[in-house]
Amino acid sequence: MTGFEVWAPAAELVRVRVAGETHPMTAHAGGWWRAEIAAAPGQRYGFLLDADETVLPDPRSPRQPEGVHAPSAVHALDPAAWTDAGWTGRPLPGAVFYELHIGTFTTEGTFDAAIERLDHLVDLGITTVELMPVNAVDGTHNWGYDGVLWYAVHEPYGGPDGLQRFVNACHVRGLAVALDVVYNHLGPSGNYLPRFGPYLTDGRNTWGQSLNLDGPDSDPVRRFIIDNALCWFRDFHIDALRLDAVHALVDRTATHLLTELATETATLAAHLRRPLTLIAESDLNDPRLITPRAAGGYGLTGQWNDDLHHAIHTAVSGERQGYYADFGALATLAQTYTHGFFHAGTYSSFRARRHGRPIDRDLFPASALLAYTCNHDQIGNRALGDRPSAYLTDGQLAVKAALVLFSPYTPMLFMGEEWGARTPFQFFTSHTDPVIGAATATGRKAEFAEHGWSSEDVPDPQDPQTFLRSKLDWREAVNSELLACYRALIALRRTRPEITDPWLPRVRVEVDEAAGRVIVHRGPLHLLCNLSAEPSEFPLSGAELLSWRPVGRGPAHTLLAPHSFAIIETDRTACS
Prior knowledge:
The chain has 576 residues and is α/β, with parallel strands linked by helices. The chain is built from 15 helices and 29 strands.
């Protein structure tokens, strides 16, 4: 017998249809309905509410073979298919992350095809593969943030069994798996949860209606979210979750949802005997997210650091538009590099208010902050979805990589950046509802038209070519000089403890704004970056460990080519 249950607190009658036959369900306390029915794996099922004969997919559906508008399928992962019994996990400190989108990482766009590229990541020096959301969404392709059935795995990728094979393949190679999850909104197409209960509020954020985290009947909604997170950890053997835009979680209860999630994650980690990591994406620059619960914080493991991205990107590229306006000066880069956040209780011109809060550098290790030269947002949310490789030289890309990979922060790469991929990563959808599809395309074009872009230049998210253009071209990686540089930088990071040392007070940065020079001091190791288009002489000399271009050395200086870097080693008294 198979147990079927669903939370539908307002319904007076709930039935479940299994393999074409309709069965009554019994009401239980708290708005739950349950039934025990003989059902074979793969059989389709769905719920009928009151007198409505519409068959709705299970809010906790384990599989959606025909898409999010169709019935769910009875499914459970095969325990015997797991091959990672010896896997003990990986902590966040010391990690090197690699963010990828399954649908565009390979031509095939499946878990199985991605497995064939994992050895490339191992050779590169990656320790953790971070997947953009793989939950069930409407259509065949999507970034993943329009998920509506959070427990199901997007079928075109390979469904739940495909994800199981992918995790097995990662773990056998020593790679941890992180997964991007979205708990701040639901997608616009295929969201049937409001028919079952008060999952949403009347409040809205940038992407849609907010989840009901603190209103009447919010306890089961919170449980729905936490159970989903624990399901990825426990059932799919995921090692880390990246929590999308946690600043959009509206929770006024005494125990924030994130604190509750961190508590239950720690409990599960103790039982599984492997570290489980929670990483926030947040626009708040609030260190309370990574402050331990015992000290009054939320207790998350880490968070993305957009300020450092902005500081590095603007210093190298010269861009100043939008939220880049407060960045660009090399002094800003030095401040951010040594303090974590630039906006730390300081005025943000983009927000027209004070923003952020300082990090206590003596208490918080920099490894709790993830650093990156780019990610899916910083590329895909540009009008054209163009990568830095479209407007920077390979030397400038190498300088950006060196600044991230030499930093005390946990580095993260975005797929293809290691060889300077020329393919864009554009915003794409495939909503089956033509009204929603048209609204998505119109809204995207209107958004960028406000910033001066011609609507004709902005790719149509619903055009299949927008998706196809975003797929990596792996032929570009062959004999790539930039790829060799990335491998060398990561290898040096792995062998030198001065680089992975996470304590910010031991990091010192010197800049020369006029000359475009940056020097990062990490003990006896020094990163010299020439951001200018002319050769530049640095007042420091030592043994060359790694460089983008050959350097000239004198007894007290090092000469760097334009748009290049070098890492040198001196004795410890040279820069005291």
